[in-house]
Amino acid sequence: MASKVSCLYVLTVVCWASALWYLSITRPTSSYTGHRQVNSISIARKNVSFGNIRTRPINPHSFDFLINEPNKCEKSVPFLVILISTTHKEFDARQAIRETWGDENNFKGIKIATLFLLGKNADPVLNQMVEQESQIFHDIIVEDFIDSYHNLTLKTLMGMRWVATYCSKAKYVMKTDSDIFVNMDNLIYKLLKPNTKPRRRYFTGYVINGGPIRDVRSKWYMPRDLYPDSNYPPFCSGTGYIFSADVAELIYKTSLHTRLLHLEDVYVGLCLRKLGIHPFQNSGFNHWKMAYSLCRTTCAVPKQVADGAIAEFRQLSTAEPTLTRT
Ligand SMILES: *[C@@H]1O[C@H](CO)[C@@H](O)[C@H](O)[C@H]1NC(C)=O
Ligand SMILES: *[C@@H]1O[C@H](CO)[C@@H](O)[C@H](O)[C@H]1NC(C)=O
């Protein structure tokens, strides 16, 4: 009798176990909609960390667009999307960029899309002025996070999200600041080369191999509890970096599961390391402010030189950087 009961008991347990196992393998683990609760429970039985990662992003970036340009890439696919981190009061800087290197109509046959990135300002008057500016130029995007130096990473992620959502077919993306001069000729013809096959998983800029600064007075101070390691992965200086557009979605999605850091360039470097993408060093990217020189900023590249000897080519590219802080 006793053995019969225990046999039944074992059988019931086995049945329950198989039912649970069956449930856990038949529920699609990648589905974000629907039975989210059930999902995480059944996955948790199998693999706790996997369930947690899929269902609870640690950095969900749940902001809404306050100003958006969802149709900017609809008519034609840009070769290059330029994302410029800016602040509300920099009306003049934005206008200068629109009229110079950021002009979307500078290059025949090469579509450029220029966008300025902003958060929400505490001052409603400034928000309103930006709204009006946006209605004139249609080149501003704003999400509803508070615009501050410590939220720069959110601004970059907003840009990545925008490219991934509204412009994923673009070939390249540049992220830069509003106090930067970009030599677009160099950038387009020497670096990106529109006539060659577009690269993928490509990331370049001024690569920094460094570690956290623990001096609280520094602009780049990093508290030990936020980042305990003594080294950063290689990252491209936030003054300006360029990547193939496929990387935008990869970084954005990786960021959802990567603890936020306020240093946006370091943070992007962390995401790249997770993705196994190595940023390329590029000698034409200048990290520091340079003395103004007419030749640095306005010399056109003579066609025969651009097409010509490598030696000359190198010389030219060091004398005349692609990117300069103004
Ligand atoms: C469980 O999660 C770990 C870490 O995310 C992962 O490496 C491993 O492959 C997972 N195992 C299963 C059976 O899914
Ligand atoms: C960053 O933005 C978030 C969302 O608006 C806000 O809660 C937070 O206070 C901001 N952080 C800083 C340092 O301004």
Automatic annotation (TrEMBL):
Topology in membrane: Single-pass type II membrane protein
One Gene Ontology cellular component annotation held by this UniProt entry: Golgi membrane
Compartments where found: Golgi apparatus membrane
Enzyme class at the top of the EC tree: transferase
InterPro entries: Glyco_trans_31 (IPR002659)
Pathway: Protein modification; protein glycosylation
Transmembrane segment boundaries: none
Keyword S-adenosyl-L-methionine in annotation: no
Pfam families with a match to the protein in the record: Galactosyl_T
Keywords assigned by UniProt, alphabetized: Glycoprotein, Glycosyltransferase, Golgi apparatus, Lipid metabolism, Manganese, Membrane, Signal-anchor, Transferase, Transmembrane, Transmembrane helix
GO BP: any one term: protein O-linked glycosylation
Required co-factors: Mn(2+)
Any one GO molecular-function label of the UniProt entry: N-acetyl-beta-D-glucosaminide beta-(1,3)-galactosyltransferase activity
Repeat is among the record's keywords: no
EC number: 2.4.1.-
Database matches in PANTHER family: BETA-1,3-GALACTOSYLTRANSFERASE 1 (PTHR11214:SF20), BETA-1,3-N-ACETYLGLUCOSAMINYLTRANSFERASE (PTHR11214)
Family note: Belongs to the glycosyltransferase 31 family.
Protein name: Hexosyltransferase
Source organism of the structure: Meleagris gallopavo
Taxonomic lineage from the root: Eukaryota, Metazoa, Chordata, Craniata, Vertebrata
